Amino acid sequence: MKYECEICHYIYDSDEGDPKFGFKRGMPLEDLPDDWVCPICGIEKEYFHPVGNMDINPKGEAPLALMVFALTRGLWTISGRGSYSVTREIGKTFLKELESSEMDLNGQENALESVRKYFIDQHKFALDMDYEIKEDEVELIVKNCRFFSICKQLESQNILITTCPYTNTAAMALEKVTGYRYRINKEQKGYGHHITLKKLSQVKNI
Length: 206
Fold this sequence. Notes:
Family: Belongs to the rubredoxin family.
Distance between the termini: 55 Å
Radius of gyration: 19 Å
CATH architecture of the largest domain: 2-Layer Sandwich
GO molecular function, one term: iron ion binding
Protein name: Rubredoxin
CATH topology of the largest domain: Muramoyl-pentapeptide Carboxypeptidase, domain 2
Number of domains: 2
Strand content: 15-25%
Shape: elongated
Largest sheet: 4 strands, antiparallel
Number of helices: 5
Order of helices and strands: EEEHHHEEHHEE
Domain Rubredoxin-like: 2-51
Pfam families: Rubredoxin
Strand order of the largest sheet: 4-5-7-6
């Protein structure tokens, strides 16, 4: 029997096991330890669903992840810290998509909730995204992210540019609402990130 992770689409095949992660042949998903989690995104086994051979369509997850990793590393090599403009453009692109779908971007609370709905509820990029609005900053907690393994590799190589869709889109949404640019700080937290968006200078002619 094959089981698919609903977040990152990792397939656990009980007939084959997964020697790479220490799982022997013939071990059903339900017999794995209670504390077992997806080796890619860290989600619990209750989020795995049985699939037949005919149900598994090539999704291109592995090559897509590799492409994002290579592009991000390339941008950092070429632009270094100047690549900040790239992260802004990513956020602007997603923000236009949110606006075109008529999501509510009026006020910080509505803007952040729209970002959460788009990436979490509609597209399941991660298990969840919590947020807290403070006086001069906003904190995001992204849980069990589909792209965690990519970010972990980039951060281990000291590549500081972020292509994180939640971070860049939230920063641009807040800029639109408040008229201020935000500095991004990311720290690994479990199989996700703790992200702080710190209010900086006011944007002219917003």
